[in-house]
């Protein structure tokens, strides 16, 4: 089947995007998740497909329709998202927008856990794989352009710069979430790459998607 446009500035480019939260089960009826509506990742998928790209959207559980022309693969856990992303390589551009849970339960109960008489409960978590870092540092199939997102409540620019370096990606879109962004149509964002900071503050998620499409066109043409 045909995804993406035959024309448009991104025609012929394969883009893989992660979006939404991940869900890490604790037992059959409970789990750990992150707050993410998925709207930013979906807005980016919609814009890039309109600009001609072949877009695969790897989505955690969200309540959003699939943008027309986008190939969507649904996953729950970070490990499933990691595997789904790697199955899509090689691609030209990777954009990691998902709010991936950093941790998963070390042991997942096969039966619903009953409440006990204790007033405290301890659960051991183990670290999830870092999808953005693994794609950025892939030895054979690193995309030409790897872009991450970072939501921070403080020291936005310092943390974004540190993430750019530690993950080895080409750019990070840093979001200030100190004033409530989740589920809204707007973000306050700054892009950081090796050239420095480009503020894109006070714009809508669609505007950030437009900005990113232009940035991608500049970087991979
Ligand atoms: N990310 C990922 N896989 C993970 C964790 C994060 O792919 N296991 C990606 C996110 O999709 C995002 C970027 O990494 O593009 C930054 O996520 P963030 O949670 O801000 O970074 P962390 O390195 O997890 O740092 P922390 O949560 O401690 O701030
Ligand atoms: Ca994290």
Automatic annotation (TrEMBL):
Domain of life: Bacteria
Record text on cofactor binding: Binds 1 FMN per subunit.
The keyword Flavoprotein appears for this protein: yes
GO cellular component labels: phosphopantothenoylcysteine decarboxylase complex
Pathway it works in: Cofactor biosynthesis; coenzyme A biosynthesis; CoA from (R)-pantothenate: step 2/5; Cofactor biosynthesis; coenzyme A biosynthesis; CoA from (R)-pantothenate: step 3/5
Enzyme Commission number(s) of this protein: 4.1.1.36, 6.3.2.5
GO biological process: coenzyme A biosynthetic process; pantothenate catabolic process
Residue stretches making up the DNA/pantothenate metabolism flavoprotein C-terminal domain: 10-217
Alphabetically ordered keywords of this record: Decarboxylase, Flavoprotein, FMN, Ligase, Lyase, Magnesium, Metal-binding, Multifunctional enzyme
List of residues binding CTP: 102, 112, 129-132, 149, 163, 167
Cofactor: Mg(2+); FMN
UniProt keyword Cell cycle present: no
GO terms of molecular function: FMN binding; metal ion binding; phosphopantothenate--cysteine ligase activity; phosphopantothenoylcysteine decarboxylase activity
Region feature Phosphopantothenate--cysteine ligase, mapped onto this chain: 15-221
Function: Catalyzes two steps in the biosynthesis of coenzyme A. In the first step cysteine is conjugated to 4'-phosphopantothenate to form 4-phosphopantothenoylcysteine, in the latter compound is decarboxylated to form 4'-phosphopantotheine. Catalyzes two sequential steps in the biosynthesis of coenzyme A. In the first step cysteine is conjugated to 4'-phosphopantothenate to form 4-phosphopantothenoylcysteine. In the second step the latter compound is decarboxylated to form 4'-phosphopantotheine.
Protein name: Coenzyme A biosynthesis bifunctional protein CoaBC
Gene source species: Asticcacaulis benevestitus DSM 16100 = ATCC BAA-896
Covered range of the whole protein: 175 to 395 of 395
């Amino acid at each position: 089947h045909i995804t993406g446009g035959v024309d448009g500035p991104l025609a012929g480019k394969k883009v893989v995007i992660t979006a939404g939260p991940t869900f890490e089960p604790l037992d059959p009826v409970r789990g750990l998740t992150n707050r993410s509506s998925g709207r930013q990742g979906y807005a980016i998928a919609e814009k890039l497909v309109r600009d001609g790209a072949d877009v695969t959207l790897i989505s955690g559980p969200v309540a959003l329709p699939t943008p027309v022309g986008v190939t969507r693969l649904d996953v729950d856990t970070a490990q499933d998202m990691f595997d789904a992303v790697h199955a899509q390589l090689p691609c030209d551009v990777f954009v990691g927008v998902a709010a991936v849970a950093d941790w998963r339960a070390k042991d997942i109960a096969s039966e619903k856990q009953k409440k006990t008489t204790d007033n405290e409960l301890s659960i051991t978590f183990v670290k999830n794989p870092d999808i953005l870092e693994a794609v950025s540092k892939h030895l054979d199939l690193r995309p030409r352009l790897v872009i991450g997102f970072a939501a921070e409540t403080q020291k936005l620019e310092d943390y974004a710069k540190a993430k750019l370096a530690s993950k080895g990606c080409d750019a990070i879109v840093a979001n200030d979430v100190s004033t409530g962004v989740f589920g809204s149509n707007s973000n306050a964002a700054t892009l950081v790459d090796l050239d420095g900071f480009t503020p894109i503050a006070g714009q809508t998620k669609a505007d950030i998607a437009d900005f990113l499409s232009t940035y991608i066109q500049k970087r991979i043409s």
